[in-house]
Structure formats: structure tokens, C-alpha cells
Amino acid sequence: MSLDYSIASIMTRLTDWSGFPKYQLERRVDIFLTPFLESFVTDELKRPAVLVAPEFPLLSDLREKGARASRQELSGRTVNADYLLHLPGDAPRWLFLELKTDAGSFDAEQADLYAIAKNRGMRELIEDLGLVFERTEKRHKRKYEKLRSAIAALAGTDEEPIVIAYLAPSVLRTEAEKAVDHFFSLESFAEQDFARIPPEHRGLWPYVRDLLRSIRTPQSTAR
Fold it and tell me: β-strand 93-99 against 162-168: which pairing, if any?
């Protein structure tokens, strides 16, 4: 069998398994989206976008304690923003991007945490990583070192403001737009101009496009 057959089979299985309870499609499909994410966000925002890291940790206690909470009153437990991107150039920004594939999965509490993180600012969020580093198991510490190194390697500074975006089914637009700075639809992602697809990834694109088209309809997948 060919590699094309294997990739097509994987995509078909993702679509099929998304109908099972507790199957988190976002966690499986995101790696297939990342080759196209920078070019898509760049096109949507009309400015360069650099993908920095997946799963950026945010202190979960901030939901109760607020943006100005001191680290002494925080537990170190985290939830994660799906992607951290940097928007260089004039008026540079940090961008937290949340991926949703389930049309019923908007979470108001999660959106509130993003708003709090935005107000807390990147400098404090980076310093929060120090608290997480201190309280995590030794075997995981190198992963936080890698994250901090990835951020430090950029030309960006921790003084730059944060913006929040969702990449989700368009049915979530009304709810999400109330809480975020930018809303990108999966439908728009799937219908990107082929000329804008990075040449090195054009062989993969038809499979990703067809997968996204297959999950457009509202789902009731439990989270």
C-alpha cells in the first residue's frame, strides 16, 4: 500500500472516531493543521505570524484570583492555551489561539481565563512559568525550560500586548466573538487559496482540507 493510502486511512478514521464519546478530535487533528497555521493566520491578519509553541500553560487559579493575583496565592496548577504565536513587525503582539472542532464546545470559563491572562500580560505569564517549573516533577522540568527558551529566542519582548483568537466552526462565531479579538473559522481554513499553501506541504493539504470539510457539520461529541 502507498503512503497516500495510509494518510487517507488515518484521516477517515479521525472523522469516524470523532463520533465516539470522549474522543477529543482537537488533540488528534491539531498536528495536521500546524503546517498550514502560520500561513493561514498571516493571511487572515495581513501580517506575519510565527508559531512559537503548543499548549502554553496558564495558571488555572487565575479564574478565581484575577489578573493581579500574586504567585504566593496561586497553586501552580495549569490549563493550556492550544497555541502561542508571535506577530512581529509594527505594533507586535503575542497571540493565544484556541482550536475547537466541536460546534458545541464553547466554554465561557475558558474564555474568561483567556481574558484574565490577556490582562495579566506576557511578562507575568512568563514569570508564572517559574512557579510551575518549581512545582513540577523533575522529569518534566526540561519541557518548561524548552518553552522558555523558545520564547526567549524570539525578537519579541514581554512588554508586547496579548491578543486572543479562536479557530473553530463558524457556528461558534457569535459566542466566541464576544470574548476574543479574532475569530477564524474552520470553514475558511479548509477553503484557503491553494496558492497560499506552503509549497513544501501541498501534498498533505488535500487530506487536511477534506478532513476539515468532513467535520463542518455540528457535532455533539462529549468533552
Answer: parallel
Sequence spans of domains, the chain:
3-214
Cβ-in-10-Å burial (0-12, 13-18, 19+) of 19 comes to exposed
Nine-digit cell string for 81: 492555551
Please state whether beta strands 182-185 and 162-168 pair in parallel, antiparallel, or not at all (unpaired). parallel
For cell 498536528, what's the residue?
Answer: 31
Three-state secondary structure readout of the chain = CCHHHHHHHHHHHHHHHCCCCCCCHHHHHHHHHHHHHHHHHHHHHCCCCEEEEEEEEEECCHHHHCCCCCHHHCCCCEEEEEEEEEECCCCCEEEEEEECCCCCCCCHHHHHHHHHHHHHCHHHHHHHHHHHHHHCCHHHHHHHHHHHHHHHCCCCCCCCCEEEEEEECHHHHHHHHCCCCEEEEHHHHHCCCHHHCCHHHCCCHHHHHHHHHHCCCCCCCCC
Report which residue type is found at 195. Answer: A
Band of pLDDT at residue 154, cut at 50, 70 and 90? confident
Kindly report, residue by residue over 82-133, the tens digit of the pLDDT: 999 999 999 999 999 999 988 777 888 899 999 999 999 999 999 999 999 9
Rounded CA-CA distance 41/48 in Å is: 8
